[in-house]
Amino acid sequence: AIEEGAELWLGLPSADGRVWMDGKYPRIVSLGAWCCPTLAAREMGIGGPSLPFDWCRSTLSSVLHALRTDFAGFLEYRRVIPHTGRTGDSVMRDYRHDVEPEADIPFKDVYVCDGHSFWHDDLWDKREWDKYDRRIKRLLRLAQSRPPLVFVR
């Protein structure tokens, strides 16, 4: 269900926020920057399965490059920076749609690529690459199916 107030935030015309664009629900698509757009959409009840830019920090030029090249080299990182945040910083992962709960990998490093970085993934693990492959395919299918999309950053 859409949380109260979400329809105002999105500018939806109906009082209950349930009718928009000929009765179809929009799909919120995060274009990176950081993870808060996806978190906010989920808190409002309008999120969906994870997409490739949901949980990484990115520049707009990196997003455009990934889209133009079908994500070629998207996960190739140049360096790894040890995470120095508070112990107990939580990692938000979408296990319901991406991996099984027992596939949890302790969060400890930031993987820096050209124009984007991964703060919630350990890219040395093949399961993470498989997870992003699913997210990329999910986004490309969305683009092909032409549902109502709302891009946020």
From TrEMBL:
Q: Which organism is it from?
A: Alexandrium catenella
InterPro entries associated with the record: DUF1796
Name of the protein described by the UniProt record: Uncharacterized protein
Report the domain of life of the source organism: Eukaryota
